[in-house]
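To illustrate the input format used throughout this study, we show a single complete record. The first block contains the structure-token representation of the backbone; no residue identities are included at this stage. The design step must infer an amino acid for every position from geometry alone.
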């Protein structure tokens, strides 16, 4: 193996060598799924275009895994339809078995067979090939994830990160039109996670497979996905490109999901919302009480504004995370600033960038 340059993790294998798939359109049409009396997914519709990478984002228990299992055919939904290239694969009338769907699945715990070698694990899904060919294809997939030299080893002899790569190789080897990944990086330590994520993304782009990736980490979703589907309690809350969910969340729940936020009470009057920290356009909301959500990056320090004092400062590298007591506000304002610019105890004037104010009706809280 190459020695990585200082601070740089080695690339897995030669980029551009993962076999291309014929991507399929994956459609969930009004899917509901219940386990007994518990409704895990509720009337959810989602259309993933061929070759698109969509992140299913949500808290633990919101139904993400259930949706993947329904897509794969591991679970049969209570109601609604699953379509691949607009053809029903699961409905009240039709149920295609998992192996008939051309879908790859990377399980959260990788689900490698302990009694099979790494190469045989990867070859396992290549049922319609002669054994020698399947083993050759498996080797190529292992080569792409940089693990050819572990082909004869058993899963327990590999690290968690290596096992994840075997699981990925196994999923892509049959060139599935759709690839489902359930929290594929959650078992990896943070430093490793970044490089594994980047390499996985390169593999996904090379295969071109339509990909649905489950995660509870908004940053991961933003890094990987063309679109993010945000779920809560079995329902789809919002779907769109990462910038749209971050900058124009439709609900306070969606705004809260992507970063910590400051929530200011406000009152809308004639299209303008007034708060203790300043005013902003009310974004079409009618007159009445409102909440103005401000990400820490929307808080402006220095210049004009309300009087405040830095109560706490946490060093984050290039920036400091600040807690600021502001006259007239009950809770401290959270802000970001260049490291060292505002030491604890210093006086500061505080306002916010109107363009970044996210306004919601108060009833939603
Ligand atoms: N086989 C099952 N039997 C009964 N209830 C289940 C089953 N699988 C999941 N559930 C329940 O359904 C709900 C949704 O679970 P699901 O695993 O789909 O959520 P998730 O968003 O993937 O969560 P996590 O990230 O924790 O896996 C949860 O309340 C869970 O307890």
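Output of the design step:
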């Amino acid at each position: 193996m190459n020695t990585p340059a200082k601070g740089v993790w080695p690339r897995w294998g030669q980029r551009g060598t993962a076999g291309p798939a014929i991507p399929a359109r994956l459609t969930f049409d009004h899917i509901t799924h219940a386990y007994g009396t518990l409704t895990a997914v509720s009337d959810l519709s989602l259309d993933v275009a061929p070759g698109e990478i969509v992140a299913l984002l949500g808290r633990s228990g919101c139904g993400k895994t259930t949706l993947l299992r329904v897509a794969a055919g591991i679970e049969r939904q209570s109601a609604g339809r699953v379509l691949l290239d607009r053809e029903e694969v699961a409905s009240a009338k039709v149920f295609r078995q998992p192996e008939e769907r051309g879908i790859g699945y990377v399980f959260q715990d990788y689900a490698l067979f302990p009694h099979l070698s790494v190469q045989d694990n990867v070859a396992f899904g290549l049922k319609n090939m002669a054994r020698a060919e399947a083993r050759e294809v498996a080797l190529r997939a292992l080569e792409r994830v940089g693990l050819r030299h572990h082909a004869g080893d058993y899963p327990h002899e590999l690290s968690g990160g290596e096992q994840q790569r075997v699981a990925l190789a196994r999923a892509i080897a049959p060139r599935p039109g759709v690839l489902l990944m359930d929290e594929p990086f959650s078992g990896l330590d943070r430093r490793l996670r970044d490089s594994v994520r980047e390499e996985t993304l390169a593999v996904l782009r090379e295969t071109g497979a339509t990909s649905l990736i489950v995660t509870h980490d908004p940053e991961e979703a933003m890094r990987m996905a063309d679109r993010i589907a945000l779920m809560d309690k079995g329902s789809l809350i919002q779907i769109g490109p990462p910038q749209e969910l971050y900058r124009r969340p439709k609900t306070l729940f969606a705004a809260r999901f992507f970063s910590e936020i400051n929530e200011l009470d406000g009152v809308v009057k004639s299209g303008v919302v007034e708060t203790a920290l300043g005013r902003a356009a009310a974004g079409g909301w009618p007159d009445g009480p409102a909440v103005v959500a401000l990400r820490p990056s929307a808080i402006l320090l220095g210049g004009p504004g309300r009087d405040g004092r830095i109560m706490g400062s946490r060093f984050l590298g290039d920036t400091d995370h600040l807690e600021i007591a502001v006259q007239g506000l009950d809770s401290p304002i959270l802000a970001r600033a260049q490291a060292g610019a505002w030491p604890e105890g210093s006086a500061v004037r505080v306002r916010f960038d109107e363009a970044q104010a996210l306004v919601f009706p108060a009833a939603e809280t």
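Structural context for interpreting the output: The chain has two domains: 26-247, 260-364. Residues 26-247 form a domain with the Rossmann fold fold (CATH 3.40.50.300).
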